[in-house]
Design brief:
The complex is a heterodimer of chains A (467) and B (106). Chain A is of the alpha+beta class. Chain A folds into two domains: 62-111, Penicillin-binding protein 2a (Domain 2), CATH 3.90.1310; 129-456, Beta-lactamase (3-Layer(aba) Sandwich). Chain A is 33% helix and 15% strand. Chain A contains 15 helices and 16 strands. The relative contact order of chain A is 0.12. Chain B is mostly helical and 106 residues long. Chain B has a domain at 3-70. In chain B, 62% of the residues lie in helices and 0% in strands. Chain B is built from two helices and no strands. Chain B has helices at 3-58, 60-69. In chain B, helix 1 packs parallel to helix 2. The chains are: A alpha+beta (467), B mainly alpha (106). The interface between A and B is large, with 50 and 44 residues.
Chain lengths: 467, 106
């Protein structure tokens, strides 16, 4: 008798039934488990079935005005096919932030919600002009070893920003290798004291207020004391100047003589009306307001400084928008960066006659002064230079030899199409004046703009190139 | 074992066999899908890199830099302009067809 039979015989019937059931269960369960292995990912140990790949949410693209793709792809794998082009403007994406955004800088940050909803964003930026602005800005900034710089091209009448270049820049495809200083979107985010480019606005405000006639003669010695400060003129001139020549010689003394016709509040309010110290109506990108100190805190030297563009700060885009008032017969058109953005309607700041008169004075500034290096061949230019001391917040003073140099220009003057602002900060090598550095940069960018329009060079275009 | 159980076991085992076969197909498809996902990622990377490479040749920045490095200047800066736009193209010399039509008006 087999041993197992003997064991079975010794067991009770109930015990025997349970043992058989257990054996059957094992026999039936094991193949079931073996069959189910086919539905398990052996690497992850989790159940799996072929399924559509779970992509990251589709993030909208950022396009230039001509449809050139500037940014595309999901937030976790964002690509910038044009490399460094408009990088400071575009910004970049990264890991999701506590507020749910993927964009970390620039438009990627400010338009994050719209982009994450899968909507494309079309900018007003013209890639050719953006490239021209960036290339020339970089060339001149490197040549003069400037700390940083910016250039803006704004379309008169529409407020469309055609180019907004920053120096230094970076490649958003490799943003981790860039320093925070390289990433600043300077035309919108960097505020600086603009210097003499502010003067035309004070002249226009005085004329609009009926406090100045365009044909007046203004006493203008070479220096003037206001409070504990002495303001001097750089370029020698006669002791009396026409209003247009006050601008032409960029006479600080002449401007300060005129500014006392305003109360501090009047001057303050006029500067605010041009948009200085005020938020830009751009809804699409982070921008700073610049600083216009409350007039109640002004001492006389503050009013004098504000008149010549010191003690007041602006961004390049604000400045471009303000110049477009003069080019646009007195009407302020809010700058536009995103094609479909809803912006406030344009509004009148100056009478057309006042704006046109000051605009003519700016043509005189370029034609009569030593600003041939700003003249785009074949095209008449209205413009103004600005060389300003740079305030060092750390030191609490204006260090000697550190300047912000700007040229603000509009062309062509018969039918103004664009305002161009160029600014370099702290050039270290060569000339440190706007006439010799910013004006040629303006001309270089201006020539690219005219070439882009396809205007054939006429006889005037054969003018000496100046460099 | 009851008669019902005796009939159920082969059915059960048959179903298990079918399940195992479906599992095998599932695994094969799943691996294929993983390979495709990898492939897709690689191809997207390639497209992105090629777009970048293309922009280095025909992007607005590349064109501007290339033109500058080759001594080109924007049109308004041109010192001498010999031809701004090409003149009308010369009419091609048509071959003699050998046919001549004469129209006479009355």
């Amino acid at each position: 008798m087999a041993l197992s039979e003997r064991k079975d015989r010794d067991r009770s019937p109930v015990e025997l039934r349970f043992t058989r059931r257990g054996l059957m269960s094992v026999l039936l369960t094991l193949p079931l488990l073996a069959a189910l292995i086919g539905f398990v990912d052996q690497q992850r140990g989790a159940p799996t079935f072929p399924a559509p790949p779970a992509d990251a949410p589709v993030r909208g693209r950022i396009l230039a005005s001509d449809g050139t793709i500037l940014a595309y792809g999901p937030a976790g794998d964002r690509r910038y096919p044009q490399g460094t082009l408009a990088a400071n403007l575009l910004g970049f994406t990264g890991a999701v932030q506590p507020d749910g955004r993927y964009g970390l800088e620039g438009l990627e940050y400010s338009l994050d919600r719209r982009l994450q909803n899968g909507q494309d964003v079309k900018l007003t930026i013209d890639p050719t002009l953006q490239a021209a602005a960036e290339t020339n800005l970089k060339r001149v900034a490197e040549k003069n070893q400037a700390a940083d710089g910016m250039a803006v091209i704004l379309e008169v009448g529409t407020g469309r920003i055609l180019a907004a270049a920053s120096y230094p820049s970076f490649d958003p495809n490799h943003w981790r290798q860039a320093s925070p200083n390289d990433m600043i979107d300077r035309p919108f985010a960097q505020e600086y004291e603009p210097g003499s480019v502010m003067k035309p606005f004070v002249v226009a405000a005085l004329m609009q207020s009926g406090l100045l006639k365009p044909n007046e003669i203004i006493p203008a010695k070479m220096s003037v004391h206001v409070g504990d400060k002495t303001f001097t003129d750089v370029e020698w001139h006669k002791p009396e100047l026409s209003v247009a020549d006050v601008l032409r010689y960029s006479s600080n003394v002449g401007m300060i003589d005129m500014t006392w016709r305003f109360t501090p509040q009047q001057l303050h309010d006029w500067l605010a009306r041009y948009g200085f110290g005020q938020p830009l109506d751009l809804t699409s990108i982070y921008s700073t307001t610049g600083i216009l100190n409350p007039w109640q805190n002004w001492v006389p030297q503050d009013q004098a400084s504000n008149t010549i563009g010191q003690n007041v700060s602006t961004t390049a885009v604000q400045l471009a928008a303000a110049y477009s008032i003069l080019a646009n017969h007195g009407v302020y058109v809010p700058p536009r960066l995103v094609d479909s953005a809803t912006l406030p309607p344009p509004h009148r700041v100056l009478d057309a006659t006042v704006a046109n008169t000051v605009f003519d004075m700016l043509i005189h500034v370029v034609d009569a002064s030593d600003l041939k290096y700003s003249k785009v061949p074949g095209v008449s230019v209205a413009g103004k230079t600005g060389t300003a001391d740079i305030y060092d917040r750390r030191l609490g003073t204006y260090p000697k030899g550190e300047y912000s140099i700007t040229f603000a220009g509009v062309f062509p003057t018969d039918h103004p199409k664009v305002v161009t602002i160029v600014t370099l900060q702290k050039p270290q090598v060569g000339s440190k004046t706007s006439t010799w550095v910013a004006a040629p940069l303006f001309r270089a960018i201006g020539s690219e703009v005219v070439a882009h329009w396809g205007w054939a060079p006429g006889s005037v275009a054969m003018a000496d190139s100046g460099h | 074992m009851s008669a019902l159980s005796r009939r159920a076991v082969p059915v059960y085992l048959g179903l298990l066999l079918a399940l195992a076969a479906v599992g095998l197909v599932n695994q094969t498809l799943y691996r294929h899908q993983l390979r495709l996902i990898d492939q897709r990622r690689t191809l997207l990377d390639q497209v992105a890199n090629l777009r970048l490479e293309a922009a280095k040749v025909d992007g607005p920045l590349a064109i501007t830099q290339w033109a500058t490095s080759h001594g080109m200047v924007p049109a308004p800066e041109a010192q001498k302009v010999s031809a701004v736009a090409a003149g009308p193209a010369a009419l091609p010399q048509l071959p003699d067809s050998g046919l001549e039509i004469v129209t006479i008006w009355h």
